[in-house]
Write a structure and sequence with these properties.
14 helices; alpha/beta; 13 strands; about 375 residues
Length: about 375
């Protein structure tokens, strides 16, 4: 079977859907599928996967090139992470376009700011083009709309009144692994020693490339209230080269000593090992890899109803709050998980779900869908 995976950029070091696409491609290739990645720009190489760059020109040219390939019949299945009319499968790993717009409006407090944001969207030709493509694609009932969470599946109905040919294949992740010669205890001890954190200090971990969208400012505010309750606790925020206003906020609130800002990391396992709880206060996440990775490692999470990955926590693997801005609820959740016994119960619940969240399971379900599509052609 020949499968084309379509993504704008192919650089797994950027995380998110690019990491997921790389993991999917590798797993499919391991199962004997002939995989090609069609991208506008790509820096990734794999001996068993053809990464085909279709030029760094305009996005419109890229879309036309992909559509031409779809019409050529070269592939049995075309599976796109971008809205491109004519593909067999559309999987919006970042969520639908209207949902992304709504999420950004949630982060803006002032009515005037929201008006300016909407105006910016109207004037942004690239965003308008993406919205147009998604409307066209979703209007074609023959295209399978594939959602990585039930939350995203509901977006197709909310924004497009589309239920036909919409399926959920819940997101999956490979479990982060320690490097050669490392172990979880050694990673934990090394990182804590480097950061000057005591062995028994409860540590909360945020991993994000977009601190505002992942509610890091509200995590800092919640840390203040949590420390008032239990008297200790440290937050490690990984992912921004310069924390800027977030560091200033921590300083102004008197918790700078309880914050550790860490730049983007290529090896993420040691940071999970160093922490006790994952905190991802998403204003929007189609289905966060960070929460799923934490769950597979047995680490409980605190996240929001705006994160599709919250669906993985329904059996006790974490705590889901209504909004990043509900500081009291987040602080209560952090205080609960600062307790080792309560945290252990949540951890056990995570491990029960672990295999259900694997990339292997995700790819097995994808391959079943691919087979059905190919047989109909």
């Amino acid at each position: 079977m020949k499968v084309a995976l379509v993504i704008e950029r192919m650089d797994p070091s950027r995380g998110g859907r690019e990491t997921s696409t790389a993991q999917i491609a590798q797993a499919l290739a391991g199962l004997g599928v002939d995989v090609t990645i069609l991208c506008q720009q790509g820096s990734w190489q794999h001996h068993a996967i053809d990464v085909r760059q279709l030029g760094a020109g305009s996005g419109r040219t890229f879309v036309k090139n992909v559509q031409s390939i779809c019409l050529s019949g070269e592939f049995d299945v075309t599976h796109s992470m971008l809205p491109i009319p004519g593909v067999d499968i559309y999987q919006p790993r970042g969520g639908t376009v209207p949902a992304q717009i709504d999420s950004r409006l949630r982060t803006i407090n002032s009515p005037f700011g929201r008006v300016l944001s909407r105006l910016g969207r109207v004037l942004n030709s690239r965003r308008r083009y993406q919205a147009k493509l998604e409307r066209q694609l979703v209007a074609d009932a023959s295209t399978l709309c594939l959602a990585g969470s039930q939350m995203v599946a509901s977006e197709f109905w909310t924004h497009y009144k589309r239920r036909q040919n919409v399926r959920v294949v819940f997101n999956g992740v490979d479990t982060p692994k320690p490097g050669p010669g490392e172990s979880p205890p050694s990673c934990r001890a090394n990182i804590r020693r480097q950061l000057g954190i005591d062995d028994d200090e409860p540590v909360f971990l945020t991993i994000a490339t977009n601190f505002p969208l992942k509610g890091v400012d509200f995590a800092i505010r919640s840390l203040v209230e949590m420390r008032d309750k239990v008297g200790c606790g440290t937050l490690i925020a990984v992912g921004q080269q310069t924390p800027g206003r977030f560091a200033e906020l921590a300083k102004s609130l008197g918790v700078a000593q309880a914050l550790r800002f860490v730049p983007p990391q290529t090896e993420i396992f040691p940071w999970y090992a160093a922490a006790d709880v994952c905190v991802l206060l998403s204003w929007y996440d189609a289905c966060s890899r960070v929460v799923l990775e934490a769950c597979r490692l047995g680490m409980p999470s605190i996240t929001t109803v705006f994160n599709g990955a919250a669906e993985a926590l329904v059996n006790g693997g974490g705590i889901v709050v209504a909004s990043p801005a509900d500081v009291s609820a987040v602080a209560d959740a952090m205080a609960e998980l600062a307790d080792p016994e309560k945290r252990q119960r949540r951890s056990e619940a995570c491990l029960v779900e672990a295999e259900k969240l694997s990339m292997a399971r995700h790819v097995d379900e994808l391959l079943e869908i691919y087979t059905q599509i190919a047989e109909k052609k």
